[in-house]
Design goal:
- Helix content is about 20%, strand content about 35%.
- By secondary structure, it is α+β, with helices and mostly antiparallel strands.
- A hairpin with a 4-residue loop joins strand 11 (about 190-200) and strand 12 (about 205).
- The longest helix is centred in the first third of the chain and has 19 residues, at about 5-20.
- It is globular and about 50 Å long.
- It starts with a helix and ends with a strand.
Length: about 200
């Protein structure tokens, strides 16, 4: 068997374990930062569920490695790591296309967990146009186990119960705690934003 085939098998196996048992977050100091959450995620997220390269995550990971090693990012790419606000944003622009990946976290009110969000967005000519890897996913980080596990968040699914027929996408907060939910009319491209408020354990409109 070729080495490349073995590499894909082992990578898929690692992803399956990560999905089942959670992603281990390694960090120095008293608590993890957004950089620790982002790198822990990217370390196991290079392949999608079918074993193919996730181009969005791959681009984000490559930019992260380059910036960490003091190298220039590719043309059209930017990477913002805002540790003080717990926010990361990678953007890649090519002609009329723009890919945006952002990540942030919230401290939960029980003092034992953190909620981590990972959000992928694709735009064309300034309008949201969902791509293959677009969407938002949440992980719950456990302070005791030092792992983050994919989860559903109380109250979040309500965003899909309104504005029938609209295309929905999200903006994570760089400052503050609330998510902006954007409802875009597919025909007119007009966007109607609403605020999804974080209460410490769930989201509410």
């Amino acid at each position: 068997m070729k080495k490349t085939s073995l590499a894909i098998i082992f990578a898929c196996f690692a992803l399956a374990l990560a999905a089942q048992d959670g992603i281990k977050v390694k960090y120095q100091g008293s608590k993890p930062t957004i950089s620790d959450f982002a790198w822990s995620y990217l370390s196991v997220a290079a392949l999608d569920d079918d074993g193919c390269i996730n181009e969005a995550d791959h681009a984000f990971k490559q930019a992260w490695v380059k910036q960490r090693n003091g190298k220039k990012l590719d043309k059209g790419e930017t990477l913002t790591i805002d540790k003080s606000n717990g926010y990361v944003c990678f953007e890649s622009r090519h002609e009329e296309h723009r890919l945006k990946i952002e990540m942030c976290y919230w401290n939960e009110s029980d003092g034992k967990h953190k909620l981590v969000a990972y959000n992928v967005l694709s735009f064309r000519d300034g309008n949201y146009e969902p791509g293959q890897y677009d969407g938002i996913v949440f992980y719950r980080y456990n302070n005791a186990t030092k792992k983050m596990t994919m989860c559903s968040v109380p109250g979040f699914n309500r965003v899909y119960d309104v504005e029938d027929g609209a295309t929905i996408y999200f903006d994570l907060p760089r400052t503050g705690k609330d998510i902006t939910v954007n409802y875009m009319n597919y025909n007119t491209k007009k966007v109607k934003p609403k605020t999804l408020k974080w209460t410490g354990r769930k989201f509410t409109f």
